[in-house]
Structure formats: structure tokens, C-alpha cells
Amino acid sequence: MNQIPIGGLSAVAEAEKPTRRAQAKRRTREKIVGAAKSLFAERGYESATIRDIAKAAGMSTGAVFASFTDKSDLFTEIAEAEQAELYQTMQLAAAGLSGHAAITAMLDAARERHAGELALVRAVMSALWTPGLAERARRRLERRPVTTLIAAAAREALPTAEAVQAAFVAELIWDGYLATLRRAALGGLTADAVKARIDAGARTILAGSQPG
Amino acid sequence: MREARKQATRRRVLGAARELFEEVGYESATIREIAGRAGVSVGSVFTGFCSKAHILSEVMQERLGDLYGDLERVAPHLRGSTADRCRSMFAVHYAFEFRRLHLFLAYVAAGFDWRADPDLPAMGANPRLRGMIRDCLAEGVRRGDVRADADLELVVDLLVGVYAWNYRRAAAQPVRPEQLTDLFDRQVGVIFAGLAPG
Known about the structure:
The complex is a heterodimer.
Chain A: H1 6-16, H2 20-43, H3 50-57, H4 61-67, H5 71-93, H6 99-115, H7 118-129, H8 135-142, H9 145-157, H10 163-186, H11 191-209
Helix pairs in contact in A: 2-3, 2-5, 2-7, 5-6, 5-8, 6-9, 6-10, 6-11, 9-10, 10-11
Chain B: H1 2-24, H2 31-38, H3 42-48, H4 52-74, H5 82-98, H6 101-111, H7 127-143, H8 152-165, H9 168-172, H10 177-195
Helix pairs in contact in B: 1-2, 1-4, 5-7, 5-10, 7-8, 8-10
């Protein structure tokens, strides 16, 4: 019981002590990702070119292609890292809570996180609609792991709901959240107003999902 | 005279752009090609429009004039619950946009483009669509199947937002308009159940 396999331990040790070459490779990737993130946020997916990204990162176009197969690969890596961080933020916010309270806390945490990076959010949203984005990249971005978090809380809020129904409600809550976020991105709403709208939307959807 | 010539150029540019967008797609069409087909210089395209996104927006507005004209004629004759009236109005939208689906998807993508002129009508912000949905909701409050204290602007945002987000399924894989209409009908059911007077 609770034994840590030896192989697992040595794998951890190896991960903690990367070779110099691996370290350099990782630093290069981080530099590219950092430059790409601000360029995508500034210009959008279509207009930010690999050449511009390489220039901003202070390296050659070839060096970028040594780390990423193409622009959609680079973009997807950034968007996926954002999704993973958003997932953790929401999971943390819901710790110790359940049902509707957990959903409210998760949406509020998402709102706070997204408020600081609306430009990147817009770039991701726009890219999802752009036919230029590779199919493989789109499939990776289309998965919305955060809705599984919301679905778990929705099942607690709606005890008689089937898993399929909870997933449907969670998608709808997240769609409603994104609709409000889009409005926030266009400007003209205070943070409190955005929060109130997100809460009211989720409340309406949960109330409408109660049986009977 | 000068104004008339300007209007004629504008019409030619919009006509050429609509044809090109349909033939080669919005992304591939260039301003130079649009100018060439319209028989005007690139410079005179830019006196009437500030970007390709602007031209797309105008092309879509022109198209939508027909759609909203029809909807406004249909709206007073809609029957059933407020949810059903909303469903009918959005079903007309899904059927209409599927006729030029790629153009519509390009329009949505451009709608997220923050570099576009903020004065351009953004997707989902169309005052006529929003007005019709708001009227339908207000009628629902009078009829008693929508709660009187509901924030109608918020419900309009929710409905239009959910309606538009459903199209991302069409961006990812081929779907039929009925599939989106069925999904939206279920979503509307949940939203209106949540708006029912307590």
C-alpha cells in the first residue's frame, strides 16, 4: 500500500536534473512562447507571423521551426497551457464547495483570470472560427476540460440529472459565461457588472434545469 | 455628382467582394483582387472602406437586410409560448446562415478581431436582431411566461451568445442546420424554464 515504485522515483529524479542541452532547449521554447503570446494577443492569430515571432524572441525563423512544427502547433501549445492553468484555477476555487456554490466560485475565478488577458482570449476565440487553423489544432482546442468540472458540480446541484444532462447544462453555463465575456471584451462593463451577469446567467440555467 | 460616383464605386466594390468571398473564401480574397474585379483602383477601395473586415461587415449587413425584413414580417404572426417564438426566429437564422456558411464563419471570426473599427457593427450586436428578441421577451412578460423581474438585456445576450456559439460545431465538422436548431431548441427550453415566474 502506498508504495512508490522505484521506477517512478528515478523518473522524477531525472526530470529534476535535466541535461544542459535539454535546459537550453526548454529556455528556447519558453522564449518563443513568451514572444508569441504577446504577438498573438496584440495582432491576433492570422496576423502574427512566425517571422515576427522569431524576431521578437531574438532568434532565427529556423530556430522557431526547430521547436514547433508550424504556427498552429505553437498557438495550440499556448492555448492549451492557458486552458490547463484555467482548469487548475477553477478547481482550486471550488475546493470545499459543492453544487451551485462551486459553480459560482469557479466562474468567478475564471472571470478574474480572463479579465487580465482578454486580448489573448479574443485571439483564441477568433482562431477557433478561422478556417486557416489546422484541423488537428482545432480538435485539441475544442476539448473543453473546464466543462467537466462544471458538470461535476452541476450533478451535485441537480441530484436527479443524468450524466448526459449534467454535461449539457455545464456546456450551456460555459456558453453563457463566454457570451458575457465577449461582451466584457468589447468594453463598457465594470467588473462588478460582469460578475453579476455571469451569476444571473448561471442561476437562470440551473433553475431551468431543475426537474418539474 | 461626385457623391453619386462615390456611391456607384461603393456598390461595385461590395458586389465584387461578395462574389469573390463566395468563390475563393474571405481569407484568400485580397483587396487588390476585389479592386480588379470592381474595375476600380486599390486606392479608391480604401477611400470607402478601412479594411477587408469592413467590406465583409458591409456585405453581411446588406445580406441581413433581407433576413431581418422577413423576420419582422413574420414576427407578429408567431404563435405559441415565448420560448417557441424565440425558437422560430432563431431557426430562420440558422437556415439563412447555412446558405453561406463559410462567409458567416469568417464574419464571426472577424467579430473577435479587436483591431477592427469599434464603430463597425459587430456580430451579435445587430440592433435589429436584439430588438426583435427583446420585444419577444417583453411580450412574454406581458403574457406571463417570463418573470417580470428578469433582466431582459441579459437574456438577449445569453440567447444570441448561445445561438452564435453553436456555430463553432459547424466550424469544426460538417453539420446540418437542423442539428443546430435541435440543440438550440433544447438550450432555449432550459433558459426559459429558468425564466418562468416562480
